[in-house]
Amino acid sequence: MTKSKDIDINVGELTSNCFRQSKVDGECMLQMRVPGAVVDADNLEYVRHIAKEWGNGDFHIGTRQTFSIPGISYDDIDEVNSYLKEYIQDVEVDTCGVDMEVDESGFPNLGARNIMGCIGNNHCIKGNVDTTELARKLEKRIFPSPYHIKIGVSGCPNDCAKGHFNDFGIIGLVDPEYQYERCIGCEKCVEACESHATGVLEINEDGKIEKDKCCCVGCGECVVACPTGAWQRNPTDYYRVTIGGRAGKQYPRLGKMFLNWVTEDVVLGIIDNWEEFSAEVLNYRPVYLHGGHLIDMAGYYNFKEKILEGVELNPKAEVAEHIYWDETEYRANIHVQPCEIE
Asked: CA–CA distance from 327 to each of 161, 245, 278, 292 (Å)?
């Protein structure tokens, strides 16, 4: 417990309520969830009102794409939570379909962090999937939960939502279809694949395109580059899933590919299994630990068995047989003797 302005504050409960302790005595910061980083513009009125009425007038776009409002007094938390009721009902229940009763106590938990998302194919010409729709489907599966999970959803392998630095990175792929008769042999797709992807396309002696399917990363650069529509998007959405990524002071690491060319049903299925996996590893005592730490504690093979339990893989799906982590370690008390320059 910390004491400020004669108020006893339980920092753990404060954080669980989506408020963050501030270095300013007597103040905290609200973190409003924005699943997939998209809400109706009308909801900005909630942000403006809270910032002006109870905050210091500013708001910060949090690094997890939350609406973060600093300068809120501990004395005003109850009023802020009461005011948030309609926002939570709209965003979490009505929009995302979260199964929860909304009252005047604010956000019920922060175990599941806000799902990050790029704009996806609703706007971006390189987006392969609807990231907003997927983020909202995921939100109803992870929130509210006391067990920690971070998810980043990206519309293509550019990974603008930084899925590789999350417990789960979900990256949209496309399996492009080649329309032979539309191809004029301009080689725009070959150039795009060579410069932006893996160089799996080449022009043959007939002036048409040949593809080495083994190394296609599903980016869709060929579709974007083709001027005649010879490359078209397959209507089936596919995903790559990375696991175990994180920032951090001592052991930051890049997530590794766990699943490739899986369908949405598979993605939703593994996320459905995450809470039970976390609970078993932590002996049903939720504490803050990155997903990568839990996977390390359980072992990759145990994780893989549990997280895929009851999940029916689509025919094209690929699952990593092994994962080898490259850790970055910062060790203290290492003294380097200065060299003498003669």
From this structure: 22, 11, 22, 11
The pTM score is 0.91
Six-digit token string for 304: 């893989």
Domains of the chain as residue ranges with CATH: 2-95 (3.90.480.20), 116-174+237-319 (3.30.413.10), 177-231 (3.30.70.20)
Dump pLDDT digits (tens) for 142-179: 999 999 999 999 999 999 999 999 999 999 999 999 99
Please, are residues 274 and 268 in contact by the beta-carbon 8 Å criterion? no
Beta strands in 188-306 (DSSP E): 201-203, 209-211, 231-232, 238-243, 256-262
pLDDT over 90 (residue 4) = no
Residue type present at position 107 = F
Which positions ≥6 away from 164 have C-beta within 8 Å? 152, 242, 245, 254, 255
